[in-house]
Amino acid sequence: MTTSRAVTWDVTASHGYETAWAAFDGETLRARGRAVGTDPEPYWVSYELETGDGYVTRRLRVTAETAEVTRTLDLRHDGRGEWTADGQPVPQVHGALDCDLGLCPLTNTMPVLRHGLHRSAGEREFLMAWVSVPDLTVRPSVQTYTHLARTDRGGRVRFASGEFRSELDIDADGLVVDYPELATRLTPR
Known about the structure:
Layout: E1 2-11, E2 16-25, E3 28-37, E4 43-51, E5 57-65, E6 70-77, E7 83-85, E8 88-89, E9 98-101, H1 109-115, E10 123-131, E11 138-150, E12 154-161, E13 164-171, E14 176-179, E15 183-185
Parallel strand pairs: 9-10
Antiparallel strand pairs: 1-2, 1-15, 2-3, 3-4, 4-5, 5-6, 6-7, 7-8, 10-11, 11-12, 12-13, 13-14, 14-15
């Protein structure tokens, strides 16, 4: 059964906003979203995300526009650990299961759901195919997610990458509610 959600975040890290429409079906996620930001420069981003079973990223298509240039990225994962960006191999992210679109709280969902880290104890380290915004460069990023607690809405998970640490509030569907220093979900009126 497919469950659909629409969520909007105040993305404080970019001085902007993001809205995503996410559809969950079994252990797959399909989402599309748009974001606007002013840091590091004014930009618009639109994206489409598709996962396979186990919430493993299969494809991320992104368009980023600034005053000077429009960039596109078609990032694909073959399901066996190999990635391509616009048809070219990206060996530095070999073995990664997930993408992480910079300044996008939606892409924290896949590893949290795959391992139920918003519901139960555990800590997992991931290699991510991290996509910077607005230049759309793909880089490796080692990230650790640690279950901290169950909450009335879902759970609390610590995110760590390099020296950066943040405690994320996650809802029962695995979507970010609050990500200090990055984004806070807006509540519909």
